[in-house]
């Protein structure tokens, strides 16, 4: 009975999570007439691909999607590559400097984006990085990094120090202990951080709006907003179609790496 | 682990750098047009309707073909965030050369010196093709002591009525024409006649009530603002109260307007309109596009001319094209604007956005005077547009968002009386305006 209730709760949760996506799919396949019907329908009566055709014809969705993918993948990889050693150091070597560093990282999160966006733009311009994906990637890495650092630090702290000591007792040097013992245990944390960084960058709009000026370098969020007019009136059909396509890479990325997202690796590693 | 991190970092940097350099410089940094190189202008456009985007791209392509020395890059922006985008690029000194926006936004940009004053620079042909009432919507203080013209106005919107033809015919009411529009009294009677069980004569979508009320208030001479000796105050007298009272009466005295529509945005009543729940929806002329696109087959609708109080005058703002003060090629930018907004092109743009052209030549275009989709009625309504009085009021945006919007929403929801509304608009409003006049 409790099992049945658990499944019921799980089903409810899945429906809750899937609802917006399914509604998006339904809207993307509807004609303008059906979208304006007083009684909304779940399954389009006369499904059409016209919204997808319009979305593709008007905006360079594939190009923008590829550019977004490049920026998001690069952001995720660079962020993790830089944050991981820092997180390890902050988690393992606990001194005053570490505390100050982690406090400062936290403080850096409170600055509103609008406050720094103009100076940031000027710095990027001096470096000739305005209007380039490299410039946007650097900015994304900078802004994703603090939270990624906090996330990874938590994961590192969860790996018992005793495991490294045990490896040392067995004759492993520090690097070997890190590579053979700690790294595999950190895999779920790294994957979670990669996902977080990827999605943050994939969805990011404001920096892209300010930094990227030409159609040839625009990322996906900038093209999606084109279907929205003044006073919040939107062209819902093409917007839904384009948004649906925009969610696909995130889902694929998640599907590829989710197998590594598991817990319980450390269960029983250290007695008592 | 270290090796792995290093490898990942190198791969990622290579990836980012390899793909990131494709963009090159923006148009704003283009070569100055010497040595035979073409001048490059960046044009930020806010067109978003399918037909409008096509028209914009076509006009730019035609220009580029005819003017190899002045090449225009078409960049699409979005109404939703254009002013954030512009502020940052103005402050950073890298704005687009030609900027599409609307007149309410120009005022603050002009006073901060971000836009080029076009006084005396607009070609005579373009200047005379656009009536003075439209030029008034782009004339602002230059932030010092003078006035300047900070854009070329090209598209305007009037408030019309969109009605279900079958219900109108069924009720046997007089169908108004631009020469003989409904008065507000007649409109109230018609709305009562059209109200049946489960169906209302009218739906007033009042999610953003302020501009709608202020623009319509001019029907009775209501301006809401009074400027004396350079100091602007809010006023809500009998003239300003007319439209407020009449809409309120339809909601709660006549019960011919659906109170549940009050929270709706402009396009939200359409499903109810198509289903026969509302016979008439007051809306900007551009909503005809959504009606034409979304109406179920066989649904007949008509566009009815603006209502008449003492006059049919309505306040209007304009969509505009401006030149950035920081543009390196202002003369070329202005040449492009003059071409982009000539009569035939304005007709294409107006048709694409379902709005009214300011160009008197464009207004005569057969595409904008046809009976189809109510174009004849919509285009005829342009003659009653005058500059919206709030356009020149410093602090209007704050008054609107902090004072007027919530107060009007409460009034239309019947939570406060008209006197209370008037008090709040004036007393709280004057405190806001006071800060801007210092």
TrEMBL record, chain A:
Signal peptide location: none
Keywords attached to this entry: Cell membrane, Membrane, Transmembrane, Transmembrane helix, Transport
Segments crossing the lipid bilayer: 7-25, 69-90, 102-121, 133-156, 177-199, 236-257
CC terms in the record's Gene Ontology section: plasma membrane
Keyword Transmembrane helix appears in the UniProt entry: yes
Topology with respect to the bilayer: Multi-pass membrane protein
Compartment(s) of residence: Cell membrane
Pfam family, any one: BPD_transp_1
InterPro entries assigned to the protein according to its UniProt record, in alphabetical order: BP-dep_ABC_trans_perm, MetI-like, MetI-like_sf
Keyword Transport among UniProt keywords: yes
GO process annotations (BP): transmembrane transport
SUPFAM superfamilies per record: MetI-like
Domain called ABC transmembrane type-1: residue spans: 65-257
Family as reported in the entry's similarity comment: Belongs to the binding-protein-dependent transport system permease family.
PANTHER family documented for this protein: INNER MEMBRANE ABC TRANSPORTER PERMEASE PROTEIN YCJP, MALTOSE TRANSPORT SYSTEM PERMEASE-RELATED
Name used for this protein in its record: ABC transporter permease subunit
Organism field: Microbispora catharanthi
Lineage of origin: Bacteria, Bacillati, Actinomycetota, Actinomycetes, Streptosporangiales
From TrEMBL, chain B:
Annotated keywords: Signal
Keyword match Signal: yes
Signal peptide feature range: 1-16
Family matches, as InterPro entries: Bact_solute-bd_prot1, SBP
Protein name: Extracellular solute-binding protein
Organism: Microbispora catharanthi
Lineage: Bacteria, Bacillati, Actinomycetota, Actinomycetes, Streptosporangiales
